[in-house]
Predict the 3D structure of the following.
Amino acid sequence: MSEREKRLAANEALFREMNERVEERVEAAAGPDATLEILCECADPGCTERIALTAAEYEAAHADPAQFTIVPGHAAIDVEEVVARNDRFEIVRKRGYAADVAEALDDG
């Protein structure tokens, strides 16, 4: 795995960690159908785009630790594949070593 792939996986894992904290607080306060706004979990460290989804949608997307929620069109095709999409977001799954890194960095 290249340094770039490691960096991409670590960056996405960091965004996911921040979003999980938001999701936990919103769900605790308003329930699983509450809408939350998360940061795009794409590999671009400069991306500040946000995604609106329910806590339940977020949890379902992240049931697999190698999956991330991103703004449509933000996939890094060389290390991940789009496994689901709608008009608000895409769910990508890391492949190969990038998936191993993402799973190792997942604390949930």
